[in-house]
Amino acid sequence: MPARLLRLASGPALFALTLLLGTGLPAAERQVLAAALWMMAWWLTEAVPLAATSLLPMLLFPTLGTVPFPKIATGYANELIFLFLAGFLLAAALESWRAHERLALALVSRAGGDSRRIILGVMVATGLLSMWISNTATAAMMYPIAMAIGGLFGWTGAGTQARTALMLGVAYAASIGGMGTLIGTPPNLILAANAEQLAGRSIGFGQFMALGVPMVLVLLPACWLLLVYLLFPGNVTLGADARLLLRDRRAALGPLAGGERAVLAVFGLTAAGWIIGVPGLTDTGIGLAGALLMFVLHARGEEGQWRPLLRWREAREIPWDVLLLFGGGLALASAMESSGLTTHLAGQLTLLNGAPPVVIELGLAVLVLVLSELASNTAVAAMAMPLAATLALATGQPPLTLLLVTGFAASTGFALPIATPPNAIVFGSGQVRVGQMFRAGFLLDVVAIVVIVGLLNLLIPLVVG
């Protein structure tokens, strides 16, 4: 049987077997578990697009009589889904005016004249952009810049090492930067939505930044040090050629025009609103207000005509499928909670009672990390949130802590080309071998897990109580 047919059959087969053999469970719990296993099989194997798998709750639960359609559909209209929609639209406006590229080149240009400092500059630019724009878009935008700079390192041993560190730095910085804000990467919003649904705790934009930005501030320098001093220590001193290349690329963007200036202004105001808050508006309201302004305000484009800061043809290109993936994960978590399956599974995990909290957190983080190396980080986050809530119930640990560990750990997965889109983009350059990525990524995975668990234990009492 072809591999694709096996992947397709895996989900329905698990579903049917669970319904037939899971007689020890009440009907509603058995049906939810069967549906969860079907979704997990298809999410992990990507037998069909992730977003298509996410529609299964709206088909299975009403058909089985487990959850009525109006109730299960509310998972696809969660407030935080619209916050991420707003973030996508703001990012699309930045990209349409190439404002993100100007910011990246400005940061890299100030890095200095040797390869280690340039690598740091590229990673800082990538990380900062990834806090606001999708990891994939950031890596795709920084990739040609890094390739051009890497070509100036020469083809000696030191130059080759520096180029490898540069390319890996782009991939890793894109994933690390995404940890900094709620809209930085899909697992963050899945975390926030599940924290409210499964732990009864709301995490605001500012609160999340108080947790996420320290992660970035620790992991980004640690990643740079690991790459340029331990794994690929070659250092190359560059002359005027590198500065000329960056200057030419910045010059090609032309002067800061009215439209680009307006986009940056709206984006800056929206970000400020998220950080400091706006009376009467939630984070979602602030984001949607900024996104709507992009459609309302006009400026003169390259063709000389007045146009909206964001046109619908550009908005259509945002990753709508991710929003469906959110909805499917939330719908599944809601069904697990309402059916009693979460409580039942918690009873099976009582053997972990008495284990030190840090051991439980590290074990959960490692499990999520391993899954993230093999499957979409977004799908892993959606699958693992109910597991984390169940583990908290079984062990008496604070649910919010385990949900946060799960959310941040889902953004790791640095060792394999298939683990994240940034890894795949960089691996496609031909400048990085699988063995090099695995060695560097494995070490960074270990560092990331320790940093995530350590910082969360330090920051959670200070930030969310």
In short:
With 465 residues, the chain is an all-alpha fold.
Description:
The chain is mostly helical and 465 residues long. The protein has a domain at 79-315. It has 23 helices and two strands. It has helices at 3-21, 27-45, 50-53, 56-64, 69-73, 79-96, 99-109, 115-130, 135-150, 157-177, 186-198, 205-231, 240-252, 258-276, 283-296, 312-315, 320-339, 341-348, 357-374, 377-395, 399-409, 421-427, 434-463, and strands spanning 298-300, 306-308. Strands 1-2 form a two-stranded antiparallel sheet. A hairpin with a 5-residue loop joins strand 1 (298-300) and strand 2.
Q: Report the average pLDDT across residues.
A: 84
**Can you write the helix and strand succession as a string?**
HHHHHHHHHHHHHHHEEHHHHHHHH
Give the overall form.
globular
Number of helices: 23
Number of strands: 2
Strand order across the largest sheet: 1-2
Residue share in β-strands? under 5%
Radius of gyration: 23 Å
Classify the helix fraction into a percent range: over 70%
The chain-level structural class is mainly alpha
Q: Extract low-pLDDT stretches.
A: none
Largest sheet: 2 strands, antiparallel
State the end-to-end CA separation.
53 Å
